[in-house]
Fold this sequence. Notes:
seven-stranded antiparallel β-sheet, alpha+beta
Amino acid sequence: MSGCGNKDGAVDGNHVMDMQQAADRADGILDDVLNELKPGVQWAHGPTSTGRCDVSRMRVVMTIVSEQRRGSFLGVVDRFWRKSGYRIKAINKDAELPAIYAQTDDGFGVTLSVGGKGQAFFEVDSPCVEESEVAESTTPPNGPSYEGVYPLPRPNVHSDFWSAGAS
Length: 167
């Protein structure tokens, strides 16, 4: 069912999913994992990208996740994805730039990667779906939208928990 070699596209129930439906599904996956983080983190939308038959959505965490809290952050996400039935495909245990790569049972790739200054990025990539127009996400960010700003700034929101020990 996944991979762009499948010209029939991903199947949702008995009908073939299009790119907008895949983007909506990706938004739901992102909403679910971000809602799992307690205390919550502030995030902004990253770019939406489309390929020949796939779509990707990204959310960028604007809360500072300190080096001391990074393992906890990744652990919460890893446990949630496993509990949700996702298959963990790989874990990069690099101390500075760790990442978790997983896949949903319907073929969506989900990634949590940590970049420079500890900034966390969540990305969801769809399997091959029917081509269609894709609107921007209707999920409002829980902080500044940074509309028209690229690249997004480094994380700049302090959390008493997630930012503990950060300078």
